[in-house]
Design brief:
The chain is built from 3 helices and 3 strands. The chain is mainly alpha-helical.
């Protein structure tokens, strides 16, 4: 019985390791061509920090907070409120 439980535990662990995506801490964030592409991944846009408030009006989605991604896409922040491609 103990061998069966050990085997099932090992098999479960192996399945979880294969099924879980691996995110590298060194992976560079994606560079998007336009807001349509960015909004497919981040529907609310990307904010430079959590304290930023939207000045462009009411939005449907909350922005994803990432200073690094925002810095790469500052040209997509048309109203200069600290949120790129807000929806």
């Amino acid at each position: 019985m103990k061998k069966i439980l050990t085997g099932l535990s090992a098999m479960s662990l192996a399945v979880l390791m294969v099924a879980m995506p691996i995110h590298s801490a060194n992976a560079a964030p994606a560079k998007f061509k336009n807001c349509t592409e960015l909004n497919k991944t981040y529907p609310g846009g990307v904010a430079k920090d959590a304290k930023v408030k939207n000045v462009g009006g009411k939005t449907k989605f909350k922005p994803f907070v990432s200073a690094e991604i925002y810095k790469m896409h500052t040209h997509m922040d048309r109203d200069k409120d600290g949120i790129a491609c807000e929806k």
